[in-house]
Structure formats: C-alpha cells, structure tokens
Amino acid sequence: MLSAKSLFQEILDNDESFRLFCSIAAGGESQGGWENGRIAALVPPGLRELAPKVARHGADEDKHGRIFDALLKQRGLQPVAVPYETDYTLLLERRGIGLAHDRLSRDEPLTERDVIVYLAHSRVTEQRASEQMRLLLKHFAGHPVLGRAVKMISRDEDNHLAYCHEELLRFARAGHGRTIQSVLRECAHAEIRVYRDVSLAVMSHMGEVLRWPRAKAAVLAAGIHALYAGERLVGWRRMVSLEQPALRNALGGPAVPEDEHA
Q1: pLDDT (tens digit, 9 = 90+) per residue, 9-62?
Q2: Quick one: 81 exposed, middle or buried, by C-beta within 10 A (0-12, 13-18, 19+)?
Q3: What angle separates helix 4-13 from helix 112-140, to the nearest 10 degrees?
Q4: Is residue 171 exposed (0-12), middle (13-18) or buried (19+ Cβ within 10 Å)?
Q5: What are the tens digits of pLDDT across the range 190-226?
Q6: How far apart are CA 253 and CA 143, in angstroms?
Q7: Which are the contacts of 219, defined by CB distance < 8 A and separation ≥ 6?
Q8: Closest CA to 50 of 92, 112, 137, 135
C-alpha cells in the first residue's frame, strides 16, 4: 500500500534518490536565504524595524540548506545539479510571484508595496513548507538520522509562518488590507500550480532512479493531480487567511545554530 511514509522511506533508503531529494531541498533553502538577505538589506527606511526579522528568516533558510548538505555528507554523497523542472523557487519567480531577482540585485531600497509582496509570497510558501515538515515530523521524528533535523526545521517553518501572519496583519491594520488579499490570492493560485508541476517532475525523476513500475508512477501522478484539483477548488483558501498567531514575535531574536537544537 502506498503511503507518504513508505514513499519517503523508499527515497531515503536509496543513495541516488536521497541525494536528489537533499539537493533539491538544499537548493531551495539556500535560494530563500539569499532572497531574504537581500530584502533585509533593502528594507526602506520607514520599515527598518522589520529588517532584523527578515535577516533572521534568511539565516534560518541558510541553516536549513546546510543541514541538507550535512545529511548528504553523512552518507558520503555529493549534491547533484537540481533539474530545472524541480526548482520550486525558480519556477515561482518565473511566474512573477514574489520579488524578482534582478530587482533584489540592485542596491535600491524596496517600496512599502514590495515589502507587502514579499510577506504575502512568504505567507503562501511558508504554509506549504510548514505542512510538508509537519508530515515528515509525524513519520520521522524518531528517525536516528533525520529526526533531529526534521524537528528543528519544522519548528523554524512554523515560526516563519507565524511571523508572516503577524506582519501582514500589522500592514492590514495600517490600511493595506485589500492589497494584501489581492497579492495573497495571486500568489496562492500560482503556488498550487507550481507545486503540482514540481511534484510531478520530482516523482518522475524519483521513478526513474527507483525504477518504479508504470502502474505505481501512474497512481502517484493521479494523486498529485487530485491534490491540485482539491486545492484549486477550495484548498487555496487556507493560504490566504490571516489570523493572529499564538506565538508572537516569532523571529524577534537571533537565529539558533544547528548545534543548539536537540
């Protein structure tokens, strides 16, 4: 019987599929670290109090990238090039979601709207990241190799999501509610399409590595399409709602190094 746990266990047990998984994950996290670092440097003068939180967000993402690289090294593996069609962050940017890299590469302060776009984009993508890590946490919290990393990354992703909710609500109270909802909806609809396409691409590559029979590959593809259909119909709404998080000021302190987590 196919399940999330059995599927990931199969990927984990094979060196080549595990190498591809960690390489994709590390690439996405490192890219997120760069983006947040640039945003922190370009936050406009009137919003400088936000800069340390954005920097903390970026430091967390960099840390996650190093963790996935470390998992590879523990097994004596080297990263592989990330296939274009599996690059979630790149494909979102190509769809015009978030702040473009050419914009972030210029030493020109961001506008208030740019910051709102960044936070809305992060609110949507961190929802996905938080859900994915909670799934791994459910099945692999006690794993001798992955458990520690999964617990730490899951906690960080929950903090990132809480931070996005809190900051967007702050902007909404300042009169930007309509803009926020418009950007959130655009981001959410684009994200679910990109997530479907990337999921199909990743499963295709994993299927080649693990030599899945056609029937198994077809079942997994059908499941991805079914998830997309549900998200397109109603599931996207969970990505655009805003509520005050239980944990306030989640990114108010410095990033916690990998070796300080149990």
Answers
A1: 999 999 999 999 999 999 999 999 999 999 999 999 999 999 999 999 999 999
A2: exposed
A3: 90
A4: buried
A5: 999 999 999 999 999 999 999 999 999 999 999 999 9
A6: 29
A7: 2
A8: 112
Please list, in sequence order, all residues whose beta carbon lies within 8 angstroms of the beta carbon of residue 36, skipping any fewer than 6 positions away. 54, 55, 57, 58, 61
Which stretches does DSSP call E strand in 40-121?
A: none
Task: Let me know: does 232 contact 185? Beta carbons within 8 Å.
Answer: no
Q: If you count DSSP H runs as helices and E runs as strands, how many of each does the chain have, helices first?
A: 9, 0
Separation CA 42–CA 85 (nearest Å): 30
What contacts 218, CB < 8 A, 6 or more positions away? none
Per the CB < 8 A criterion, the answer to whether 181 and 240 are in contact is yes
Task: Tell which residue, 186, 36, 16, 21, has the closest CA to residue 88.
Answer: 21
- Would you say the pTM of this structure is higher than 0.70? yes
Residue 113's nearest CA partner among 55, 166, 174 is 174
CA 105 to chain centre: 21
Asked if residues 240 and 182 have their Cβ atoms less than 8 Å apart, the reply is no
Q: At what angle do helices 15-42 and 177-210 cross, to 10 degrees?
A: 160
- For residues 139 and 8, give the distance between their C-alpha atoms in angstroms, rounded to a whole number: 9
